[in-house]
């Protein structure tokens, strides 16, 4: 940039001593060349800053790989009851495939995860119109949500007692229609043997704005290529769901799960009642630990009997979305394996969907004085 400014000054000084039209033409031609070269240099520098890579954290038997495209979990290797290591998350072999992904494999989704009715909301008397990318509604932040941007790696410690990687992203005012500049960080840390902690933070820099981030990893404890998860035993510590309409938009009502296909208060197989639903599970559970409790508490437990693996998910968020990969069809994944419906399940801890349009729901509005702090803890075991 300094060289660009100096070149402009030299050309301008020379032009001031020239009087002919031809010489003035040379001046503007020279100016154009300098600007073009500067733009090329800036673009190249920007591309280098946006370089996408793969990063690994390892502690004991647990190995987790990430990419800064979407702050995405790419793989999770943990042992089964016999000590055999398997990758237990769905995904792809190349970064380019993640860039073309439409399933949100492993990504952090936002600025607002889940759905916003009618792709609009009103905040402080101002109507904000968003980008609709699922019919008339906004899903996972719009057509270019946080899962489709390059995050900056601000910290990467591969060794030590707590290996960690920190991703950050600055979302600009008006991005996908959302108000205000927002600084977001995602800190993945291996805090103990077979434990992965994720802390997602966001700070509104100039305007109040809704924020609801979710980690969208697809889990298959038998291994990403082991088939469906219908025989997995699942327990969810939420006795109510946020009832939805035919477009999966909350009506504003909360209803008990007891006596319904959504009842996982006691461990039971995922597929035991799935045939009573049109496609499968895609529902937010109101967790029983309460909406005002910031402590990290158990949200769900999944167990795969064949491998012996168990995943326990804890959070300080008020809700968790159970999704059973209902719309996966012929998706070519890792090693060429083709994923189909119910190949995995997602446990996306979050605020309630469409909270911006339901004043009775826990607020998802973030301000400079009220930052966003969302914690997830994944505990893996096998027996």
From TrEMBL:
Catalytic activity: alpha-D-glucose = beta-D-glucose
Binding annotation for beta-D-galactose: 114-115, 216-218, 282
Similarity comment: Belongs to the aldose epimerase family.
Classification via InterPro entries: Aldose_1-epimerase, Aldose_1/G6P_1-epimerase, Gal_mutarotase_sf_dom, Galactose_mutarotase-like, GH-type_carb-bd
Top-level EC class: isomerase
The enzyme's E.C. designation: 5.1.3.3
Keywords in alphabetical order: Carbohydrate metabolism, Isomerase
Lineage top rank: taxon: Eukaryota
Catalytic residues as annotated in Swiss-Prot or TrEMBL: 216 (proton donor), 348 (proton acceptor)
Pathway involvement of the protein, from the record: Carbohydrate metabolism; hexose metabolism
PANTHER family: ALDOSE-1-EPIMERASE, GALACTOSE MUTAROTASE
Protein name per Swiss-Prot or TrEMBL: Aldose 1-epimerase
GO BP, sorted A to Z: galactose catabolic process via UDP-galactose, Leloir pathway; glucose metabolic process
Molecular function GO terms recorded: aldose 1-epimerase activity; carbohydrate binding
């Amino acid at each position: 940039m300094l060289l660009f400014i100096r070149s402009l000054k030299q050309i301008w000084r020379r032009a001031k001593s020239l009087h002919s039209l031809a010489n003035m033409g040379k001046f503007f031609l020279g100016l154009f060349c300098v600007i073009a070269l500067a733009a090329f240099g800036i673009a190249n520098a920007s591309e280098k800053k946006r370089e996408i890579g793969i990063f690994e954290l390892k502690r004991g038997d647990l190995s987790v790989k990430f990419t800064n495209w979407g702050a995405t979990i790419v793989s999770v290797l943990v042992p089964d009851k016999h000590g055999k290591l398997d990758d237990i998350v769905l995904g792809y072999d190349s970064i380019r495939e993640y860039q073309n992904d439409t399933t949100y494999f492993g990504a952090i989704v936002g600025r607002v995860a889940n759905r916003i009715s009618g792709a609009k909301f009103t905040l402080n008397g101002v109507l904000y119109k968003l980008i609709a990318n699922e019919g008339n509604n906004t899903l996972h932040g719009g057509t270019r949500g946080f899962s489709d941007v390059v995050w900056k790696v601000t910290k990467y410690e591969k060794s030590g007692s707590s290996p960690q990687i920190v991703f950050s992203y600055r979302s600009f005012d008006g991005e996908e229609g959302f108000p205000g500049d927002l600084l977001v960080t995602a800190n993945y840390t291996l805090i103990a043997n077979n434990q992965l902690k994720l802390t997602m933070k966001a700070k509104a820099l100039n305007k109040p704005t809704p924020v609801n981030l979710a980690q969208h990893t697809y889990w298959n404890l038998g291994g990403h290529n082991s088939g469906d998860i219908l025989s997995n035993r699942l327990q969810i510590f939420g006795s109510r769901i946020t009832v939805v309409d035919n477009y999966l938009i909350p009506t504003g009502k909360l209803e008990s799960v007891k006596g319904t296909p959504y009842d996982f208060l006691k461990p039971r197989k995922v597929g035991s009642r799935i045939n009573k639903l049109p496609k499968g599970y895609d529902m937010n559970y109101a967790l029983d630990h309460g909406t005002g409790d910031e402590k990290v508490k158990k949200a769900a437990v999944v167990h795969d009997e064949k491998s012996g693996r168990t995943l326990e998910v804890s959070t300080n968020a008020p809700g968790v979305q159970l999704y059973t990969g209902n719309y996966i069809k012929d998706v070519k994944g890792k090693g060429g394996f083709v994923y189909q419906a119910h190949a995995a399940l997602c446990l996306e801890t979050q605020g309630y969907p469409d909270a911006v349009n339901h004043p009775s729901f826990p607020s998802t509005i973030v301000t400079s004085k009220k930052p966003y702090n969302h914690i997830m803890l994944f505990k893996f075991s096998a027996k």
